[in-house]
Amino acid sequence: MSETLILYPLGSSGWIPSNGQQTMCFAFVRADEVFVIDAGTGISRFLELKENLFKHWWGAIRRVHIFLTHYHFDHVTGLFWVRAIFKDTPVTVYAPGRAAYGRTAQETLGGLFRKPYSPHSFMELIPSVKVVDLDPPGLKIDSGGEPFDIGVKVNLGHSDPTVSLRFGDSFAFVTDTPPEVETIQFVRGVKVLLHESWYDSSGSFVDDGDDLGRHGDGPHTGSFGAGLIAKRAGVSRLYLVHHNPERSIEEARSDAAKVSERLGIDCRAALDLMEIQIDPRN
What we know:
Strand order of the largest sheet: 6-5-4-3-2-1-16
Number of helices: 10
Strand content: 25-35%
Structural class: alpha/beta
Largest sheet: 7 strands, mixed
CATH architecture: 4-Layer Sandwich
């Protein structure tokens, strides 16, 4: 990718929409295609944004790519609304497959979307859909006349398996996982890292040599766990995502400020509807 990519957080919260933040959903446009990462309640923002912020390119979209990190409801509930949002535009859903769950993504989605929980099966709910497994090491997408490499890493430390995603050398997206040493190599070389930060782990921080395990709390990562991964990977910019809804926006910003100050890196809190600009040349 040679042009600046603008990534939009449509939902940056985990679990429950709160503090004006919807649950996890990020989006960017590449040529005439929309890329969506996770389909939490934030995907509903497209209904409003297509009339204003996204109006200049909305009518030209010819394909939608939706990437799911896992199948918990705060990350997939928006799949129920995809047809209403994107109408008849062809949609490809990429979701964890056999490597993470021992079955195909289509089989897993079929278990979520069936009567009496859904009026239609998944394939009926989005008639234009194609389902692709997200298995390591990843896949290549032909987008805008250029190949686009998507890296995939399976994480097994959450309550159910999740996948981390790498979009070329532009950015990586890591959520719903404790901090893992393997993530450092996976994200090395990207410009921007978006990593979950469920709580403030500054109280556990000693120095840059901390074991990552000091900054994990069961299935989730603390702020300095994300910070240490970014620092050790040499990432230019870190955004904290998947905020705990029981904590405030001010606390999320404070977490990022502490990480920046004590680790000497550029760390920010990703918040809904901000613009994250990623220039591949810098």
